[in-house]
Input
Amino acid sequence: MRIIQFGRRAVCALLTLVSTSLYVQTASAQIININPVSATGSTNLQPAHLAIDNNGSTRWESNHGVSPSALTLDLGQPYALNQVVILWEAANAASYEILGSNNNSTWTQLSLRTGGTFGNRTDTVPLAGTYRYLRMNALTRSAGNNWGYSIFEMDVFGTLPAASSVAASSVATGNCNLGCVTTLNSTTLRATVTQADIVDIHYRINNGAQQNVRMNVAGGVWTYDIPNLNASSVVSINFTIIRSGAGQDTAWQNYSVNTVASSSRSSVAPSSTPRSSVAPSSTPRSSVAPSSTPRSSVAPSSSSRSSTPVTPSSSSVASLGNIVPLYNSSTVLEGAIQFDRGDALVTRIADRGRDRHAKEDQFQAYDHFLSFYWEHRTATIEIVDYVAKGGNTVRMNVVSQFKLNDTEAENRWFYRGVGTVAEYHDNGTMNVINDLNYYKERSYNAREGRNIQIGDKLEFEMSQFLDHSVPHGRSAYYGTTYLYIVGEGLVPWDVTGSFGTLGGRKDSVKIPEKAWLGGKTTLPYNHSNEPDNHFIQMATNLGSINGQPFVLGRRVHHASFIDGSHDEHVADNGTFPDTVGKAGPRYVNDRCAGCHVRNGRAAPAPVGQPLEKWVFKVADINSNPHPNLGRALQPKSTGGAASEGQVSIAFWTEANGLRKPNYQFSGVTPARFSARVAPQLVGMGLLEAIPETTILAKEDINDANGDGISGRANRIADPATGQTRLGRFGYKAGATSVKHQVAAAFNSDMGVMTSLMPNPDCGSAQTNCGSSGSELSDTHLNNLVKYISTLGVRPQRNLNDAAVQRGETQFASIGCVGCHTPSVVTSQFHPLGELRSQTIKPYTDLLLHDMGADMADNLGEGQASGAEWRTAPLWGLGLSACVTGGVTNAGQGAQVCTPVHSYLHDGRARTIEEAILWHGGEGQVSKNAYQSLSASQKQDVLRFLESL
Output
């Protein structure tokens, strides 16, 4: 049993478990709590998937005052239904009906409920019939319900139809478009997919290492056999299916060999551990006393609703202790990027001007930013997809920052790509409402020669050809290339095809969601041949209200706080008056981009040269601020202030193929210091959005589970409120939020005071440190925070490379995922819609770990010791060398990557393998396991890491 913690109108509802059995057998069929593959609300103030997330503190909520309102579950395949249990919040229905369907269009009423009263309650509704789709259709609100309809959880119970005949007949008739799994014999399962171009199967046996395999094809049918199973084996399976260039990942399902089935060709039933792992009880949930046993008293298998199978730990709901969360249910939220309006699926995004087209690799001129990019050169796009809700058109509403050219305000739809890689079927200018408002609406798919349908690929590119009266910069610009799947939304894309084929060369295809490292912020693969610009891009789902803040924040990032110059297109971009004369009197660098070049990580300078892209945290022998240096060494100065001295690498100490820097200080040598290269910036907003409870659930300070890993969170005082927050940013997790990290960098790295950190870094024996008080407006600070928070993350590459697949398995098997947590879900309460409720793959637990004496310095931070370091995120790892090193100084189209490899906190590791070999302390066991691998297995691990 569990106590369910409810939301704003908090009460408890209780689930009765069957005490004598985890499931019941009826005619050899297990009644299970079915794991739906999706949930859809007719309207959504809070997302529909929260009603099937196994979390009693989250809920689906309809728009207020709208009746009827429906919540529809797709069970993934037909089930013989037994009952549905609905955990209502106080805002519930007085009357509602339960409907069933097998095509999501023709519905049968299974039950009608009336007489419901206001307040939290649990309804158990008996059902009969075999259906794939189940709908709760709320007809009237209960008396006192002045809102809408709200459901914490909607649990559906049932069995596969008798003799598991549905999937068996699907195999026989070839109708396994989303995959069928059958029992071939007593030890073998056979997976089958029909009508597909490419199919990969992903599976785990008993929650072991994940296997990723290209299935075998014969006669258009894809099959793969999983042998050597026994009656207790639980096999978790999902498929990546590509059809007509569009990729789809199916939901994870659990299977076991069905030894009691009457036919060896019958489909196997999912194992008895999906979702809550228990059969329903006829006892209402509120009729028994609470138990300390959580709902998932048997650990859910990999059929839980994450993109990869996981087994939650027993501490999945962690105590916050004295930590105050950054965000909670009272946080003011920006609007959703995509939402169901009832009559249409609506998506609202921002676009920016571009030099060339996304798929033109010969120009190398798509991903960079042009002069005056912050002025008149963003636009908002609202996609109103009526087809998704049964209508027949898709409309795009566009709002520009400046009047578009009357004859060139194009919005090109449906990729063609026969003559060029920027060729579309449906061209022409948009309809003009006024100087800043435009639209395009179509019911016809010009590529397919028919009406637009759900699932259609709508690649589009809007041209921001400005009116020639624009005051600065040129007027002709292209826009971003997006791939919109009708009925689904925006997706990151790859390319396929060649000249002369349908869709032409570089036809867009959805990247499988397994590769979406940054959730829906994930970018497309780069096809413009710009290897140095991976980390400077707008998130794919950048919201319409954040296009201008993004580019305005970027201007702050690239501006000098000495002379106001911009470090790109210097002559064109001129001076930013708001930043002139702000740096100092002591500082490390005069602009953010001076250390974070192209938003990548810095690297060691040659021996004897100043480390100008580094920060040295300093202290006296007692770890207090140094009397002559303060908390950070600032080598540059203005206004007559004395420099605190330069730092350089005196020499490298090398042993066993590994090198370690030795430093020399031109001024005062501090008793304690910590040397740190500038880190890359992508993904920081997503890391901020991870719930504190998710991070703390991994904390194991005393190594209670005996795995040798005792990660712990850093607990840091919020500079604004003084409250204890969870540390997330910096090499020792010393900053609590993106804003805290940015303000701290302004303060100590640039000598710029902000409202968050208004006092200069000044040692007790120092003078001429500058005055206190904010020097940078909150508007500029907040824009920069938004810019950094909404940078897009490149997807994982080479998914189908066998070495990468083997390497991922090895990475897990040698224990690296003990700290480099592959996947987490961000908070529903983060204020930015781009970052909320995203499944991301940062490969970090954000905890501190003792990495041993060889990695230690002699200065701690917060509660972190000198030997403790925050687990580094791994997204972007394989791209960082080209971002750090840049490209050759050659003409357009001839630039090539000049990689500079720099890993770990001080750049000592020259390869990813060296970084692995520096792991000691809590990482020692995994390092030893890596060293025990064969040479080919090591290469597989490295190929996997390079794919991130």
